[in-house]
Design goal:
Strands 2-1-5-6-7-8 form a 6-stranded parallel β-sheet, sandwiched between helices. The chain has a 6-stranded parallel β-sheet with strand order 11-10-9-12-13-14, with helices on both faces. The longest helix has 15 residues. About 40% of the residues lie in helices and about 15% in strands. By secondary structure, the chain is of the alpha/beta class. It folds into 2 domains: about 180 residues, 3-Layer(aba) Sandwich (Rossmann fold); about 140 residues, Rossmann fold (3-Layer(aba) Sandwich). The protein has 15 helices and 14 strands. The relative contact order is 0.13.
């Protein structure tokens, strides 16, 4: 089976979409599928306004068409609603080829947080993007319910996994022994929609540690000099930062899932978060974290949660099961007939 995945989010970006797609592709290839990615590194691009780490492909339509046609897929998945996603969508609609999409990011909430654009307007654009898809993959029930209420159709569940070999509790300590305990950790982008300032403003004992980078990084460092900012971390270094923390604090109210929640739990670290989509689905009623509108209280109460319980909960999530869901949601087509139709003279 040949699959084309189109995504405006890709390496070297460090975010949940990129990590999800990377893990998915690894599982698909191990299962014998052939996967081709169409991503911004293949195009001339410009920095996204207010978020230069994200590159936006310039006028990608013709090259997207060439790449799809050169790879002759039997399934097409469009992961993001950016320039590449719109170009692939146009190609599929013009040729009558089915495709699937995914709702990775609460884009309307992000746009509202950054530019003040009304949610209704952004949701109308995003709903239009996904409307022709054979399936719109969503990570959680709360997001599915929210999108259904806004008129989205053809929603299918696609959960997430965690690499429990990489993210595990038995990692060497990384923090200075003199750093006051307990250590409350945040991992993620330093951007307005992540609400990091709510974490850093909490009156907590011990120390606050921030792993990540983003457009708010300099401002947050200036405003909260007592916090320890260690920059972006990857692989074993990232896993070690999780494992050496006491509580993982997740202040975002706009995530669709929150892979970092699973990564922290896999390292045996309990979670403190708001009772919003993402934490409600990953933590919910499971006694591996505290969800509370009083985030500081949640962080203190999470200190009492056994680390072994957190690890056991994370082990119920696997990337192989996630990839299986993804495959079952795809809309494969008869590639021979599809490409024969494209080559028939009009």
């Amino acid at each position: 089976m040949r699959i084309v995945i189109v995504s405006d989010a890709w390496h070297p970006q460090v975010n949940g979409v990129v990590r999800t797609l990377s893990a998915l592709i690894g599982e698909l290839e191990r299962a014998g599928r052939t996967v081709t990615t169409i991503t911004p590194d293949l195009f001339r691009s410009v920095p996204c306004p207010t978020y230069p780490e994200i590159r936006l492909a310039l006028f990608p339509g013709r090259e997207v068409a060439r790449l799809i046609e050169a790879n002759r897929p039997c399934a097409i998945h469009i992961a993001t609603e950016g320039p590449l996603g719109w170009a692939a969508r146009r190609w599929c609609l013009k040729r009558g080829v089915p495709f699937t999409t995914a709702y990775h990011t609460r884009f309307p909430e992000y746009v509202q947080a950054r530019f003040g654009l009304p949610l209704a307007l952004s949701y109308a654009v995003v709903r239009r993007f996904h409307a022709p898809a054979a399936a719109v993959m969503v990570a959680t029930r709360t997001i599915e319910d929210a999108l259904t209420a806004r008129g989205f159709v053809n929603l299918r569940r696609w959960s997430r996994g965690v690499d429990t070999d990489l993210f595990r509790p038995d990692r060497p300590a990384v923090y200075d022994p003199d750093l006051p305990r307990p250590i409350f950790l945040y991992v993620g982008r330093l951007a307005v929609e992540k609400n990091v300032q709510s974490f850093l403003s909490l009156d907590l004992p011990g120390s606050k540690v921030v792993v990540g980078e983003g457009p708010q990084a300099a401002a947050l460092r200036r405003r909260f000099p007592a916090a320890l900012f260690v920059g972006p971390q990857r692989g074993e270094a990232l896993a070690a930062h999780y494992a050496d923390a006491d509580v993982f604090v997740f202040p975002s109210r706009t995530d669709t899932f929150g892979l970092v929640l699973l990564e922290a739990l896999a390292c045996g670290v309990p979670v403190a978060a708001y009772p919003v989509p993402g934490p409600l689905d990953v933590i919910g009623a499971h006694p591996v974290g505290r969800l509370d509108e009083a985030l500081g209280r949640a962080a203190i109460e999470a200190l009492t949660i056994p680390r072994a319980r957190c690890r056991a909960h994370a082990e119920t999530f696997s990337w192989s099961a996630s990839a299986g869901q993804f495959l079952s949601n795809l809309a494969p087509f008869d590639e021979a007939a599809a490409w024969a139709a494209q080559e028939t003279p009009s």
